[in-house]
Design a protein that fits this description.
This is P-loop containing nucleoside triphosphate hydrolase protein. By secondary structure, the protein is α/β, with parallel strands linked by helices. It contains 19 helices and 16 strands. Bound molecules: adenosine-5'-triphosphate.
Length: 574
């Protein structure tokens, strides 16, 4: 996951009713916000009350929720694309039904929404559809472009009308690829900023302005090699907050700022400072941005990402002529610093654009952030929020007390032995995703399995394979869209092609893994149950079958941890 430095089947349906928050416990604490949630789950005690904020509310809905992707409210072309992507008989998942009902109406002021639902429940469509719908409608409402407006538009640098923020380059690419699949008919332009994981260097020559003048993008949703040609303006730009900030403020803006700070300090202290600062050149304009989606909001507003995310949001507000109170340095100041700082920090923020936050988990940090800064934000939540997908089975595997890597190998072979007697698998092996806590463990397990004749992809934060600016390192494991050609089928035989991927929580967020990934192994105990839900949620997506296998010491001394874990996991199933 990019911290600081970086940047189909059927989904289970559940009856959805709506409530509001007037009797929510949070109201008692003086907070006012509308909560629109489905009925079934929220009335039960939240099994993870300490980690999640799940507000209860009373019923207020009169209009029934949509049960199909119909037009209206969807534009015809958008409806066609959704059904092409999901299958003609697809119907909205609960969170999509809530989105169809609440996010399509024409309301004059800017909206702020939180879309919260369990992993693999279709949140991407829930936010993409209303955003595309409104972008297209406002485009259609504009006067016909004249030749002069066309030429000025085609000459400008990137000036998107919407930004989609995601925590990793891999997720940015997959999201933009999926977004494209939905845009065949209504012809909006999506671009992924995450061409490469590589950090910018002064020698890098691939700038956003060149991109704007010359870009083409490939089916991966990433920028391809620039070539001369007519460009169309970008409507939606997808990327990590840092990558987008870099485009908005100019390459190396943060380093230049550090150097300027040093220079200032040196001047004040009367010493000399050697710096090489050159003003960064912004490569993207933010003044047209009318929509910002913050995907995986609990991560993008956590302490590691918050500064970049909020700086970018504040930059958009400033570019649109309505600055919001935010100074990144304030976050680092101690509570006893000036009262003004504290006041400014605790001010509700009204951005001059539509803001949608999406998440599968609401940890206390996000709940607090929303309470303080977005008290009037509307929350839309599915009935199964904070639950494991209902199509997911859970199993526990005990360490034998010998070599743990050998225990994992044994379990992999057991999975494949079971696959081999399934007639519907036609002799094919299913895929297994293994989560460890540390990069070193990922590498050592990868080497061990390789030595035992189990080819695998071992991915850590620093893996070289992540530096090529595409998602090929995940080929065979990620779900592909109809839009994107399937990766060339491997010339490797079934037993030589990797069917095992080993990684850390870095890849647990948002990525839509293929239904072939039927098992997730949790080899190391996750940091918390939020982390567990995201790791497990890479399987059993969109109503597909999946199993999470949790490794631990199940018997004798030292088994208390596993017993505790079982209890917590059990609570996620209720
Ligand atoms: N209405 C639907 N019917 C069938 N499949 C759907 C539907 N909506 C979405 N899907 C599929 O479900 C899968 C998961 O969707 P998506 O990645 O948006 O889930 P998510 O809720 O964002 O998950 P996560 O929390 O892990 O990010 C995708 O492959 C998507 O195409």
């Amino acid at each position: 996951m990019e911290r600081k430095g970086e940047s189909r089947g059927k989904t289970p349906r559940a009856p959805v009713t709506e409530r509001d928050s007037s009797r929510s416990p949070k109201r008692a604490s003086g907070l006012s916000r509308e909560v629109v949630v489905s009925a079934t789950a929220v009335k039960t005690a939240n099994p993870l009350a300490e980690e999640f904020d799940l507000s209860a509310s009373k019923s207020h809905g009169q209009e029934p929720l949509p049960v199909s992707f119909s037009s209206p409210p969807l534009l015809d072309g958008l409806r066609e694309s959704v059904l092409q992507a999901l299958g003609q008989s697809a119907s909205p998942t609960p969170i999509q039904a809530l989105s169809l009902k609440h996010l399509f109406s024409d309301i004059p002021e800017w909206r702020q929404y939180l879309l919260a639902s369990e992993t693999g429940s279709g949140k991407s469509i829930a936010y993409l559809l209303p955003m595309f719908h409104h972008l297209k409608k406002s485009e259609l409402a504009l006067p016909e472009p004249t030749s002069s407006t066309i030429s000025s538009r085609s000459q400008r640098a990137v000036n998107p009308r919407a930004l989609v923020l995601a925590p990793t380059h891999e997720l940015s690419r997959q999201l933009s690829s999926f977004a494209k699949a939905l845009l065949h008919n209504i012809k909006l332009r999506v671009l992924c900023a995450s061409r490469a994981n590589v950090k910018s260097t002064p020698r890098a020559t691939f700038t956003a302005s060149k991109m704007a003048a010359q870009f083409t993008d490939d089916a991966d949703g990433t920028l391809g090699m620039p070539h001369l040609g007519v460009s169309r303006p970008v409507d939606v730009l997808v990327g990590t907050p840092n990558k987008l900030l870099e485009m908005a403020r100019g390459r190396r803006w943060d380093r230049v700022k550090d150097e300027t700070d040093k220079q200032l300090a040196a001047e004040l202290s009367g010493s000399r400072s050697e710096t090489s600062s050159k003003s960064p050149e912004p490569e993207m304009g933010l003044q047209n941005v009318e929509w910002v989606i913050v995907d995986e909001a609990d991560i993008l507003f956590d302490p590691d990402f918050q500064e970049s995310t909020r700086t970018l949001l504040a930059d958009v507000a400033a570019a649109r002529g309505q600055p919001v109170p935010y100074t990144p340095d304030l976050l680092r100041s101690s509570p006893e610093t000036s009262t003004t700082s504290t006041l400014t920090q605790n001010t509700p923020i009204n951005y001059p654009f539509n803001l949608i936050l999406t998440t599968a988990t609401i940890p206390p940090s996000l709940a607090t952030y929303l309470d303080v800064h977005h008290p009037t934000l509307t929350r839309l939540a599915s009935p199964k929020l904070h639950r494991l997908p209902s199509t997911m089975k859970t199993e526990y595997e005990g360490w034998t007390g010998g070599n743990k890597d050998a225990d994992i190998e044994r379990r992999i072979r057991k999975v494949w032995a079971e696959d081999s007697i399934r007639s519907d698998f036609n002799g094919k092996r299913s895929k297994i995703l293994i989560f460890c806590n540390k990069g070193t463990k990922v590498q050592s397990l990868g080497a061990f399995l390789e030595g035992k004749g189990i080819p695998n992809v071992a991915l850590t934060k620093d893996s070289g394979a992540r530096n090529f600016g595409n998602n090929h390192h995940l080929d065979g494991f990620l779900r592909t869209t109809n839009y994107k050609p399937k990766p060339k089928s491997s010339s490797l035989s079934e037993d030589k092609e990797p069917h095992v991927m080993i990684t850390t929580s870095m890849l647990s967020r948002g990525l839509d893994f293929s239904p072939d990934v039927r098992h997730v192994f949790i080899a190391d105990e996750p940091r918390n149950m939020v982390d567990f839900l995201h790791r497990a949620g890479r399987s059993a997506r969109a109503g597909q079958a999946g199993k999470v296998v949790v490794f631990g010491k199940l018997k004798g001394r030292g088994s208390a941890k596993a017993t505790e874990m079982k209890k917590k996991v059990g609570a996620l199933r209720k």
